[in-house]
């Protein structure tokens, strides 16, 4: 490729890559690496660290995965680095305390579902999945000490959560300093050209640049994406907060959750999760803009047939206020007394609508539970049950009761 053509193609690629990013550092370095990649035919190695703590990906994860797919579509290689070694020892992850370690069996169980979900978005033909135990387990004590010598305590204490805990006098273990160093060493091991992450990962990604340079490698370019606000409209999307929409959730549930989003989140969701500019839909009625967003996202993850299913379910259940045509059945005969009544908490537990009796009671006391359209007012109540009655919990969960 001619020098001018190479430069123009590199500029085109960087323009696509930097769209909607929060941090791209340094841009000129990315441009130079892409030019070199075009001349040599060697794709860039673009790293994304994977926390194997949970099996379900959310639309928050999808924001970064979409950007990684842009690199793939431009001919580069996605390298997913599973933090199995670091997770087995526990890590702070920017929180106020360390997490409990996980077993290898738990990690692998989570990763099986993670792969299936991630490859709804990524192209598996242009992806590597690596586990950092592959290299971290092999480090000797001397090599670990050598790694720690390449970074200072003063620099480590620049991280926001470490600063806060240091001021508060909260304990910070040496292991917590080792975690970002181990993550940075991952970049050395796979020879990362670029590393992606959420905006909360910027500090760790920058350490990766320093450690690569200390090991004689070119420091990686870092790219961070904004954190997607969750369904509560306040906090970043998180499974622990319960304000998430899962990548693998059923189309009906995804569609309903998106339709329930606060209106003010529409610009961010359109910008980070679709190719439709917000300006194209800003003049629409909020409900229509939201319905178009829901259809677009569900079609992306489940295909157009899934999007139609989600749309029809929403219009039937929420707009026409009719129960869905297809719903699970729950056998409840064993819960009934002689008068064919059952404890409402038992019904919710049998239907799988609550993971604990306390959660079931909260659903009832919050006015979220109905049988055949009649709201259940008390968690202590025994309710009459007829064959074929419809149990509803919240906006999205329905079951037909079978005796």
Task: Give structural attributes.
403 residues; Rossmann fold; Structural Genomics Hypothetical 15.5 Kd Protein In mrcA-pckA Intergenic Region, Chain A; 3 domains; six-stranded mixed beta sheet; five-stranded mixed beta sheet; 13 strands
Q: What's the topology here?
A:
Layout: H1 3-17, E1 23-25, H2 27-40, E2 45-50, H3 59-73, E3 77-82, H4 84-88, H5 104-118, E4 127-131, H6 133-136, H7 141-148, H8 153-156, H9 160-168, H10 174-190, E5 194-198, H11 202-214, E6 221-225, H12 251-259, H13 266-273, H14 278-281, H15 286-319, E7 329-331, E8 341-343, H16 344-351, H17 357-365, E9 369-371, E10 374-375, E11 382-384, E12 390-393, E13 397-402
Parallel strand pairs: 2-3, 2-5, 3-4, 5-6, 7-13
Antiparallel strand pairs: 1-6, 8-11, 9-10, 9-12, 12-13
Helix pairs in contact: 1-2, 10-11, 12-15, 13-15, 16-17
Note down, in words, how this protein is organized:
The protein is α/β, with parallel strands linked by helices and 403 residues long. It has 3 domains: 3-225, 3-Layer(aba) Sandwich (Rossmann fold); 251-319, no CATH class; 329-402, Roll (Structural Genomics Hypothetical 15.5 Kd Protein In mrcA-pckA Intergenic Region, Chain A). It has helices spanning 3-17, 27-40, 59-73, 84-88, 104-118, 133-136, 141-148, 153-156, 160-168, 174-190, 202-214, 251-259, 266-273, 278-281, 286-319, 344-351, 357-365, and strands spanning 23-25, 45-50, 77-82, 127-131, 194-198, 221-225, 329-331, 341-343, 369-371, 374-375, 382-384, 390-393, 397-402. The strands form 3 sheets. A 6-stranded mixed beta sheet has the order 1-6-5-2-3-4, with helices on both faces. Strands 7-13-12-9-10 form a 5-stranded mixed beta sheet, covered by helices on one side. Strands 8-11 form a two-stranded antiparallel ribbon. The radius of gyration is 25 Å and the shape is globular.
